[in-house]
Specification:
alpha+beta, Arc Repressor Mutant, subunit A
């Protein structure tokens, strides 16, 4: 990778900035996992240097340790502007930089959710090394994603072709109205031809739920909303619970139309 001469940062530092740009918030352990390095003092020192120069900040207070919540690192507007110098404003847009001013004050539940999505997609990539993961900042650059996009867009190349997925992590405290609204937004987007520009089949939906009760609630809602838009034959919806993601078996996904069969991602 060619480094822009306007950047005085080392490649290892740029790699950290790139990773935080992609995921928005991340713990030190997740960063180490993504970068393929040990979560030891070396990474800690690199993060401290970036924080000292104002490129990175973190969300943390003493109460986090008691609750088992790790510090969440994120890029400051200065850090994003540094990446913009290297990669240009088409990739790191002014709108993304402007939105980043909220990161130091955004609600902790949102931060926890973003870190959880990061953790879940990392686990999926360990199960499927060819899996490509695109997060919201990346999706915002393309018109063929909904205005309120999924937590992640996944692309997996298999022997049978390329499989694409909208991936959402649904917390147990998400109100039924919010679940329903998310489903309706997706169906409206597809029904209005928002995905047509890709000239490809509609992506499959993957919903990862915290517990079986939330999973059953979403499955019922997905059936109802999909039927309302007459998209039963075009839209495939799969669910799984978070506890299954950490098990050895990768066959955890259940089609809402065939609940008795568990499949792996490359079988969907």
């Amino acid at each position: 990778m060619k480094i822009d001469k306007r950047s005085a940062l080392k490649q290892g530092q740029i790699d950290i900035l790139e990773t935080l740009y992609k995921y928005r918030f991340g713990s030190r352990q997740l960063l180490a996992d993504s970068l393929g390095i040990k979560s030891g003092s070396n990474l800690f020192e690199k993060l401290n240097v970036l924080m000292k120069h104002g490129f990175v900040a973190r969300r943390y207070d003493k109460s986090y340790k008691l609750r088992g919540v790790p510090a969440a690192y994120y890029l400051t507007p200065k850090g994003l502007k540094q990446l913009q110098l290297i990669y240009g404003s088409e990739r790191v847009t002014n709108a993304i930089i402007k939105a980043s001013y909220r990161d130091k004050v955004v609600g902790q539940s949102f931060v926890n959710h973003v870190v959880n999505v990061y953790s879940c997609t990392n686990k999926l990539q360990h199960q499927y090394p060819p899996l490509k993961v695109f997060l919201r900042r990346e999706m915002a650059l393309y018109s063929y994603f909904p205005a309120n996009p999924p937590d992640a867009f996944l692309s997996l190349k298999t022997a049978d072709g390329l499989r694409r997925f909208f991936f959402d992590v649904v917390p147990k405290d998400m109100p039924p109205s919010a679940i329903n609204r998310r489903l309706v937004n997706y169906m409206e987007f597809f029904d209005d031809g928002g995905w047509d520009a890709t000239n490809s089949n509609l992506p499959r939906f993957l919903f990862l739920l915290e517990n079986p009760a939330t999973e059953n609630r979403l499955r019922r809602a997905a059936h109802a909303v999909r039927s309302r838009f007459d998209l039963d034959d075009e839209v495939e919806v799969y669910t799984a619970t978070a506890e299954n993601l950490v098990r050895e078996s990768s066959a955890i996904w259940s089609n809402i139309d065939e609940p008795g069969e568990l499949l792996s991602l490359d079988e969907l």
